[in-house]
Amino acid sequence: MFQLIKLEYKSFFRSATLGGKIAAKIFTWLSYIWFLYMTIIFAFIHGLGKALFINKEVNVENPFLLLNSNMLFYIFAFWVVGRYFGQANPVINIKPLLLLRIKRDKIIRFSLNKTVFSFYNLLSILYLIIFSLTIYFNSAEKFDLTQLILWNLSMYFILYITNFLNLYLNKKDRVVIGLGIVLAIVYALDYFQIFSFNPISEWIFYMFYEDKILVIIPLIILAFTYYSVIQFFKNNFFLDTGLRKKVMEAKQDNLDFLNRFGDMSTFLRNDFRLIKRSKRARTTALMSLLFILYGLIFVGLQDLLGDTFLFFAYLFSTGGFIFTFCALVPSWDSQHYPFLMCQNIKYVDYLKSKWYLGSFGVIIATIIALPIYGFFGSYHLIAVLSCGLFNLGVNSYLTLWAGAFTKVKIDLNSFKNAMGNSKAFNSKTLLLTLPQMVLPLVLYWAVSTFFGHTIGCISVGSIGILGILFKDLVLNIIIKTYKIEKYSTLSAYKETN
After folding, report:
1. Count of CB atoms within 10 A of residue 366's CB?
2. Which domain holds residue 80?
3. Which spans in 216-264 are helix H?
4. For the chain, how big is the Rg over CA atoms in Å?
5. Structurally, how many domains does the chain consist of?
6. Could you read off the pLDDT of 52-61 as tens digits, one per residue?
7. Arithmetic mean of pLDDT over the chain
8. Domain presence at residue 477
């Protein structure tokens, strides 16, 4: 086990992209601090019985019962479906390890045990701890400390059941999407007061508090799940896994409507085919659509958090595609990037095609978001439109420019390996976009403080319009950066770890 940790340490510090990795770690840890802070705040407020998503002045009589009544939905929505798309599976370079004198069991257990300390899990545990402490010391109802601890242990066991279940569900998109549709139907039934599963959920999870012995049930299920996942990977953990090729009938995608873009049409066709054919790219693109609804969380909290946080949410709602998919340009082409650089192609056509692709995603997201958030008032309509313009005229360039320094190789065929991760939605890539939020937020806050929220939105949107007008000038600067980083990028893509 120590040897595997040592190898991971060397892999990190000997990487050709060490500088980018260190910068990513810094931004990642700063973001972790932010999420820790928000988790503590939400857990404390929920423990006090504040129904924030309804009205901040409404108090819940028994927040513990409220949490239990919604726990069933939370488990499937956040710990299963949300985890599937948001938490990456452990990925290690399998082939060299299998050639060493290291037992397969140790490699598998090391990879699985890495997920135990996932930040996704630690946030959930922290929330439950803070919530439990709050209701124990501040609730009018007296809770038994032993029973409350055993209830927490039961929830932790269920949490890690979903953690290891996520490893088994890798590549099973249809199952997870189907589960997501079922959850949406269940939520709709409850919202329209047709049928509610809350009483069932409350009865199930409150039993873990009332009956101490029931903590054994999730513990047994956790042990069985852990053992089953280990056996699954042992049966698929070989050097020749995935070597058998599937014979499929080739289908040509003409995409003739892209011909209007001239020389850029070739690259745009490749990108559209990538999204259609690659599971990694397709999952990332679909995840960007979910960000359109991100602002709905902050709409309910507008009175509590203020308009600045709502504006921040609209930046993600309209720019989800460039923050997730376009943030990995040119990494999507890493497998054939050396071939592209050997061809008689213009950098300007290649990068313009990526900008047009990102712009297309921003425009689609903005068009969808306008009627959704316009329902809440004219301010929301103006805010969404200004955020869309800023993402189009500023953040699209910054994301493309940052791609020159990313140098992260993406193996589109990594799903062939037992420990491969078929999902390319990378939380670290998303976290690197947070610095792009600082400029519009500071500008919006400064202008809106003195001149009102509408003028603040217009000022941010105006900068986006200026960016669109000076497109060629900005792209020429980005092209020079890509040319300077060309050979270091090629070297980084040759790495196998």
Report:
1. 21
2. 29-239
3. 216-235
4. 24
5. 2
6. 443 444 556 7
7. 77
8. yes
Asked if 404 and 486 count as a contact pair (C-beta separation under 8 A), the reply is: no
Instruction: Check whether residue 437 and residue 312 sit in a common domain.
Output: yes
Judgement on whether residues 280 and 147 belong to the same structural domain of the protein: no
Q: Is residue 18 part of a domain?
A: no
158 pLDDT more than 90 = yes
The last residue of one of the domains, among 239, 273, 297, is: 239
Per-residue pLDDT tens over the stretch 313-357: 888 888 888 888 888 888 888 888 888 888 777 778 888 888 899
> Which of 218, 239, 260 marks a domain boundary?
239
The sign of the dihedral angle between the CA atoms of 293, 295, 298, 300 is: negative
Please return the burial class of 333, using the count of CB atoms within 10 Å of its CB with bins 0-12, 13-18 and 19+. Answer: buried
| 304 part of a folded domain | yes
- 3-state DSSP assignment of residue 26: helix
Q: Are residues 261 and 352 in the same domain?
A: yes
DSSP annotation of 334: T
pLDDT in tens, 75-127: 887 887 777 766 666 555 555 666 667 777 777 787 788 888 888 888 899 99
Concatenated DSSP letters of 219-231: HHHHHHHHHHHHH
Q: Are 311 and 439 in contact (CB under 8 A)?
A: no
